[in-house]
Write a structure and sequence with these properties.
The protein contains eleven helices and 13 strands. By secondary structure, the protein is an alpha/beta fold. The protein starts with a strand and ends in a 7-residue tail after the last helix. About 45% of the residues are buried. Bound molecules: NADP nicotinamide-adenine-dinucleotide phosphate and ligand G4F.
């Protein structure tokens, strides 16, 4: 019998890479999808081009704000491993929708943990925690660094993080939190800053965009390649004992530097195109996130391989190619 995994957020950046990884490892993969009036499966659709992998991929309608759908799916699927990646994951948007973000990201995690507990399932649980939980605490940030959330998103994720710890301690569940620093790819949502930049570079190069409006370009982030981070998630669920881990590169880069690298790769001078727009600033900003991934390296043998310059280049190249093929907004 193949191992059976259930992924919430399978249509997102990480969910799509994780589904591919688990299918390649021989898993049967079940994913939660939201009903939408327009197509929202662009990232996982290519899996069906491989008939063998496609046969082991199953999609189910549900929502993190609908506990009954989660209870029914857990009972029906009876997974060996659950990866809770679904979230309203945009920090700026969480200031506009704090209640929904709390429900989907915070209470949604409880809905899922309770569904597992009620089903008396002996499965392993991964929670997508985030470096945003460190917020105002200066870098470097590791597993034992004090949390200081600076947005409704970070506060909701911190609640989910502590509830994951609590279910591990209270009910002896194999439940872990991956505290992941920013990770990007050509599949990154187009309103996150890296993808917004690389997509703009491609469009400016093609002569179909004149200007790129950005908010705070002095913020520092620790950017890695998403494809490598999903391997770390899987490794966390294969360890002998459940524990929480930071995944990061350990290198900090400003948004300004990411802009420079991306424009430079396309032989463009960013000063000619980038303008400040206050609308992209946040009521409370997280100035600097730089992770210390020593524990994951020592205990899981996990290490980020792709540096930020290479990441910027591969994202620009993918956006240039997508535009040339006429798939300008299609995440691959
Ligand atoms: P993403 O691309 O925004 O994907 C989010 C996924 O969650 C999508 O599949 C989305 O579905 C789904 N979703 C959102 N609200 C939902 C709801 N109410 N019910 C069911 N599904 C819902 O995010 P990502 O970058 O892959 O990140 C994956 C997870 O890791 C998220 O929890 C994020 O907060 C966390 N995280 C990300 C990073 C990062 O740098 N990428 C770092 C740390 C933690 P639709 O496709 O229908 O929108
Ligand atoms: O790309 P961002 O929106 O990512 P942010 O806020 O760091 O959050 C991402 O990483 C977290 C992990 O640390 C995840 F948990 C979360 O789900 C998400 O994936 O913004 C990065 C930085 C911020 O400081 C922001 O203020 O870029 C700055 N920025 C400047 N101009 C901008 C823009 N961000 C966005 N999205 N758009 C701008 O125009």
């Amino acid at each position: 019998m193949p191992k059976r995994a259930f992924i919430t957020g399978i249509t997102g950046q990480d969910g799509s890479y994780l589904a591919e990884l688990l299918l390649a490892k021989g898993y049967e993969v079940h994913g939660l999808v939201r009903r939408s009036s327009s197509f929202n499966r662009g990232r996982i659709d290519p899996i069906y081009l491989n008939a063998e992998a496609g046969e082991r991929l199953f999609l189910h309608y549900g929502d993190m704000t609908d506990g009954v759908s989660l209870v029914n799916l857990i009972l029906e699927i009876r997974p060996d491993e659950v990866y809770n990646l679904a979230a309203q994951s945009h920090v700026r948007v969480s200031f506009e929708m704090p209640e929904y973000t709390a429900s989907a990201d915070g209470i949604g995690t409880i809905r899922l943990l309770e569904a597992i507990r009620a089903a008396k399932l002996d499965c392993r649980f991964y929670q997508a925690s985030t470096s945003e939980m460190f917020g105002a605490t200066p870098p470097p940030q590791a597993e034992d660094t004090i949390f200081y959330p600076r947005s409704p998103y970070a506060a909701a994720k911190l609640y989910a993080h502590w509830m994951t710890v609590n279910y591990r301690e209270a009910y002896d569940m194999y439940a872990v939190s991956g505290i992941l620093f920013n990770h990007e790819s050509p599949r990154r949502g187009e309103t996150f800053v890296t993808r917004k930049i690389t997509k703009a570079v491609a469009a400016i190069k093609a002569g179909v965009q004149d200007v790129l409006m950005l908010g705070n370009i002095d913020a520092v982030r620790d950017w890695g390649y998403a494809k490598e981070y999903v391997e770390g998630m899987w490794r966390m669920l294969q360890a002998d004992e459940p524990s929480d881990y930071v995944l990061a590169t350990g290198v900090g880069t400003t948004v300004r530097e990411f802009v420079e690298m991306s424009f430079e790769h396309a032989d463009l001078d960013w000063h000619d195109y980038v303008m400040f727009d206050q609308r992209y600033e946040r009521p409370t900003e997280v100035d600097a996130l730089i992770g210390d991934p020593s524990k994951a390296r020592d205990q899981l043998g996990w290490k980020a391989e792709t540096g930020v310059r290479e990441l910027a280049r591969l994202m620009v190249d993918a956006d240039v190619a997508a535009l040339a093929e006429g798939f300008g907004t299609q995440p691959r």
